[in-house]
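Summary for the funding panel

The consortium committed to producing paired sequence-structure records for every protein in the target list. Below we show the first two records in order, beginning with the earlier of the two.
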Amino acid sequence: MVPAGEVFNFTKVWLSVFISLSYCYAISKVTPKGFTGLFCVLPIICLFLFLPLKLSSIHLGGMTAFFLAWLTNFKLLLFAFGKGPLSSSNPPLSLPRFIAMACLPIKIQQNPLSKSRKGHKSPLNYAIKCLLLAALLQAYNYNNYLHPKLILVLYSFHIFFVLELTLAMVQALVRALFGLELEPQFDEPYLATSLQDFWGRRWNLMVTRILRPTVHEPVLYISARAVGRKWAPLPAVFSTFLVSAAMHELIFYYLGRVRPTWEITWFFVFHGMCLMAEIALKKVWANQNIMIKSRLITVLRTMLTVGFVMVTSFWWFFPTLLRCNTDVRAFEEYAAVGAFVKDFGRALTFSPS
């Protein structure tokens, strides 16, 4: 179960976050951008690396670690040099919006009135995923009768559903508080037709958007001078996956507090190398005018892409996840929440009118 003091610690952590980001907002008004700005926000970045250690639950601690140690810190690095979403000046960000954009996975839609834009999700879409997640939780009661590989497949969908639904709740909260229409964080990754499509346009898009200006674009600029514009994307892609590997190792340390075995690093390094090969082949095929398009080819590409991601996850991703006992601890937290809801409902039912 979630420790009794976890909610109290969670409150203290996020109160510290609000105070720290208020400092960053205020200091930016009087501090020049560049290394001086970086020197001023560096203590906050170090604090945000420490704060997730105050939490031990999978859901509260895991999401806090992801938001603070990764997204917020990378945004603050950009902000120190006058770049990124926190440096918006048209219109200037108010303090509440600055804090929200700093610590939450937010990217405002450029055309919020367009409901037909790619990736927009309907309430029915989320309702179906809620039902599927509930069905998955029930299926785990029969783990003794399921093949271990099938359980890992269920875990894959479980992680996707939890991430997307959690981020959707964040979007709904921001929409209610600030009236902002946000871009979706996932675009049906199980329909990806290539690794480039999966990692670049469908899976956890907020991470993609924050890694692009902090890692990919600087390395791309340097590589273009060294190897030319045609092949510059290759080292830029690989560098991005290396940084992603390091951040995932950090997040997994927050989850399990166990010594890293570097399997997560191998997962992202391998995918980075495979994506480099895919991009190189596309460049060669483009020169040869090789274009094959058909519905059958698209289906086969999707099956190969999703199958490749899942199989490599079985090799390197899930062993680390299970070593942290995240599955057992997550189910204990679900049970604790379910028991609380039942007790609360029972208290309402039998309370005197």
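The next record, for a separate protein in the list, is shown here:
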Amino acid sequence: MAKGGKGPKGKKITFKVAKNCIKVTFDGKKRLDLSKMGITTFPKCILRLNDVDELDLSRNLIKKIPESISKFQNLRWLDLHSNYIDKLPESIGQMTSLLYLNLSNNKLTTNGLPVELNQLKNIRTVNLGLNHLDSVPTTLGALKELHEVGLNDNLLTSIPASISKLPKLKKLNTKRNPFPKEEESDLFIDSIKRLENLYLVEEKDLCGPCLRKCQLAREKLNKIKTMTSFAQRKAVFSNLVAPNSMAKDSQEDWRLRLSSS
């Protein structure tokens, strides 16, 4: 540590430097990339570049994000991973265009996440892994467009039912959390069988008997799915004007019946 107990000075980011760091992505979006630059303080000068679509401040030494970040009203992609952030500003809820938010590898606690996060109605990916969360923020249950959630490497002992009820959730990473009972994890898995990936433990970390047990459970689940799918294909929906949710897997069948009648 420097003389007087001060931390690292950090690199000074000027408006000119920031402007030269704007890149155009392959899909035509403007990305302001200030990652890995030794920044210790959020550079206020970049607020003049608030028309960018993506902002990358990852792998720096930033401790605080100011309320003024909400000026990035067009921002769809915000990467703040690998900093020293322990609290988010309430104004982040005003960034309603956000689709992707990466806050992994910081110093966040559950109290450091404002309730205003529930205003991010369009967000699809939230990564909160490698932090100090001892409970899952209830605000996540209000984000109905969420596809992916990262909660790995925290201090979680349970996962609320509101997460399992997210209608579009496809991937959930909860690896390396101190869940007290295996049964609780099993119940949670049963409640979200639609998920593509539920990372509670890796295959390589299982002993032989445990791995075989998991494989048998998976085979049983696949058999149930196959039987259910077969039953749906045999169903007749002759009285339907339009296919409902129960007929989703038989829509092609339904169209053929309709055209021949």
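Regarding this second record: Residues 1-5, 197-201, 228-261 have pLDDT under 50 and may be disordered. The beta strands are 22-24, 30-33, 54-56, 77-79, 100-102, 125-127, 148-150, 171-173, 197-199.
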